Amino acid sequence: MFTIRPARPSDRDALYRICLETADSGADATTVYRDGLLVGHIYAGPYLAYAPDFAFVLEDEEGVCGYVIGAPDSREFEATLEREWWPALRAQYADPTDIPQAERTPDERLTHLIHHPPTASQEIVEPYPSHLHIDLLPRGQGGGNGRRMLERLFATLREAGSPGVHLGVGGGNTRAIGFYRHLGFQELERWPGGSLTLGLKL
What are the N-acetyltransferase domain coordinates in residue numbering (predicted)? Predict the structure, then answer.
């Protein structure tokens, strides 16, 4: 039996673990990164801290096995993180800008994002101001869990007045791309490395 509930501060370790175990285009990235907290610092922790009303977890008898997190106003969220979240992490992790991009380790590539967080273009955030991340461990995949979690978040975003939501997905994650397209997401942007930005009108 799977249940969806609002995330709690005590779920932080579970979110970080799931974030890491799905960070390799949906596969386990535990052996990819030396610092197992980096992925969570970027893609999970900020939402639990600064957008808790838009964070939900999937839970079974073994514990939390998935989450969906988002921010209703991406620009406002970016500004909040710039003030409240990134400074402490920037003091902890050095900016690897002096290392050529092609020579950076996986950890250094993530550390670079802490110092230079990507932002969506204005052309995207105007019609699709919200954004989200969803990750499920293998035992939580299938059976409609992903769809149910997204619908829970979509309803919450609509209640907050959002007209649209966007997300990023790696070009190699064909399973996720197919899932999002099936839900009605449309391609908005394609990046040089193959990653896509998808959007959905709410």
Answer: 2-202
Do 48 and 11 form a contact (C-beta atoms < 8 A)?
Answer: yes
Instruction: Give dist(CA 120, CA 101) in Å, integer.
Output: 21
Whole-number pLDDT of residue 57: 98
Distance CA 202, CA 161 (A): 9
Q: Following DSSP, what letter does each residue of 136-171 receive, concatenated?
A: E-GGGSSTTHHHHHHHHHHHHHHHTT--EEEEEE-T
When pLDDT is cut at 50, 70 and 90, the band that residue 120 belongs to is confident
pLDDT tens digit sequence for 27-43:
999 999 999 999 999 99
Q: Distance of CA 28 to CAs 23, 31, 60, 97, Å?
A: 6, 8, 20, 27
